[in-house]
Amino acid sequence: MTVRRVAMWSGPRNISTAMMRSFENRSDCAVIDEPFYAAYLAATGHDHPGRSQVLSSQSQDWRTVADALCTEEPAPVYYQKHMTQHILPDMDLAFTEQFTNCFLVREPRRIIASYARVREDFSLDELGFAQQAALFERECDRLGAVPPVLDAALTLSNPRDVLRQLCSRLSIAFDEGMLSWPAGPRESDGVWGPHWYASVWASTGFAAPVQGQKEEAVVLSAAQEALCTEAQRSYEIMLTHALRG
Fold first, then answer.
1. What is the distance of C-alpha 135 from the center of its chain?
2. pLDDT tens series, the chain, 245 aa
């Protein structure tokens, strides 16, 4: 079987789980949820919600995980939801060359505000902006072209057209089933789902902004504003390449 390995690289508090739902609703697709999470927690010692369950649910050796991602053949399309903060300094990223790498971005201040509601103390490194930018630049250099980039807001405003374009870039057919899914948890969700996935568990599709409704302003602390300023440049560079409806 020829397998299309689609790796979607995102920071936390994005629409990454909704995007995983979208692909899982395809009849030709299998998904995997944040396969490097345990390796990341083991290496960093970060005290995330459900830490012990995460550590026992996956291999803590990133090399073992990477080998499985490159060799397993669960379906013709193998969608891998990755968090860019899980990219560790000692990782040899050569394994990513076996994937079609895509990048999901979101406005930094909204990521920071959302993340702070779950974990109060965190560094910019824990949000994956620098790691995402570095992998994006690596892919651009390797391919000699820009890999697919999706922006959360642009995707939510016109999911059908954005997903059509993405599928075209992936050389797979667009499936209308990608636009909606049943509410609730899935067996494919990581054990951390109860701590992070309340919104997506309540969803049945991509929640488009209500027409005419002004988006709520995001208020950050001074320290969070400093993080936002540092992350903004990387976000804006990638945003210029985002697929638009």
1. 13
2. 799 999 999 999 999 999 999 999 999 999 999 999 999 999 999 999 999 999 999 999 999 999 999 999 999 999 999 999 999 999 999 999 999 999 999 999 999 999 998 888 899 999 999 999 999 999 999 999 999 999 999 999 999 999 999 999 999 999 999 999 999 999 999 999 999 999 999 999 998 665 545 566 788 999 999 999 999 999 999 999 999 97
Give the range of the structural domain holding residue 73, as residue numbers without chain letter.
4-239
User: Cβ of 54: how many Cβ atoms within 10 Å?
Assistant: 21
Starting at the earlier edge strand, list the strands of the sheet with 4-10. 29-33, 77-83, 4-10, 100-105, 149-151
* CA–CA gap between residue 181 and residue 162 (Å, rounded): 17
Q: How far is CA 74 from CA 5, 70, 227, in A?
A: 10, 11, 39
Q: Is residue 244 assigned to a domain?
A: no
Place of tokens 């902004």: 209
User: What pTM, to 2 d.p., does this model score?
Assistant: 0.94
CATH of the domain at 143: 3.40.50
